[in-house]
């Protein structure tokens, strides 16, 4: 387990051994019960359930600002949480709108794709995790990715949806998609007539005021 502790009572960690993490918090619960725990990388359902049962406040894969005071940090985290909720709501609404295009054999996967790994399917795929650099997804069905994408994505379905990415290699029906078109927090790629259209669904500059 690798960790960094901030002076604003934020405890950041990467989980390598679940038992080690559980034993650590069991032994130090009184110290960290008032901390905000930020888990980077993969987090299993088992760890998520444990943190909730222990009443420990936590966030998953949040990029913490550096050199900020406590109030600024809290505002940043609050904003990120709101953005995540709105993005999830937008995703659910878009899935409902496109439900008639989804096939009956929708595959739901919560697997983190690491460098060197490849996932290939003929089904519609809903991926609830990240695609790291060096990982590859190939699907002939529709594709929806809710996590960060830094690897290679090849989709030959009617549409695909993913968030902002500057590092991914995204191909839709063999056509490379310019990452500059994928700067919104949520994007839909689809055929309209014979043309590939990229539609931003949740822009970066959205105001919460």
Oligomer: single chain
Percent in helix: 10-25%
| Rg, nearest Å | 19 Å
Structural class: alpha/beta
Name the poorly predicted regions.
205-209
Describe what you observe in this structure.
- The chain is elongated and about 60 Å long.
- The protein has helices at about 20-25, 30, 45-55, 70-95; strands at about 1-5, 10-15, 35-40, 55-60, 105-110, 120, 125, 135-140, 145, 150-155, 160, 170, 175, 185-190, 195-200.
- A 6-stranded mixed sheet has the order 5-7-9-11-14-15, with helices on one face. A 5-stranded mixed sheet has the order 6-8-10-12-13, with no helix packed on it. A 4-stranded mixed sheet has the order 1-2-3-4, with no helix packed on it.
- It starts with a strand and ends in a 7-residue tail after the last strand.
- It folds into 2 domains: about 1-65, no CATH class; about 100-200, Pectate Lyase C-like.
- It has about 210 residues and is α/β, with parallel strands linked by helices.
- Residues about 205-209 have low confidence and may be disordered.
């Amino acid at each position: 387990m690798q960790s960094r502790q901030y002076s604003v009572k934020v405890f950041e960690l990467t989980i390598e051994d679940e038992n080690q993490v559980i034993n650590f918090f069991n032994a130090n619960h009184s110290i960290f019960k008032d901390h905000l725990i930020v888990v980077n990388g993969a987090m299993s359902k088992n760890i998520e359930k444990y943190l909730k049962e222990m009443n420990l406040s936590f966030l998953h894969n949040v990029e913490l600002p550096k050199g900020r005071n406590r109030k600024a940090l809290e505002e940043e985290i609050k904003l990120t949480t709101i953005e995540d909720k709105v993005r999830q709501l937008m995703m659910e609404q878009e899935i409902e709108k496109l439900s008639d295009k989804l096939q009956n054999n929708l595959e739901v996967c919560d697997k983190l794709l690491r460098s060197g790994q490849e996932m290939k399917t003929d089904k519609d795929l809903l991926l609830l995790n990240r695609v790291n650099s060096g990982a590859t997804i190939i699907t002939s069905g529709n594709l929806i990715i809710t996590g960060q994408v830094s690897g290679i994505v090849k989709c030959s379905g009617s549409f695909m949806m993913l968030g902002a990415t500057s590092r991914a290699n995204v191909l839709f029906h063999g056509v490379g998609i310019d990452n500059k078109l994928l700067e919104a927090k949520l994007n839909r790629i689809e055929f309209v007539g014979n043309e590939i259209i990229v539609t931003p669904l949740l822009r970066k500059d959205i105001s919460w005021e």
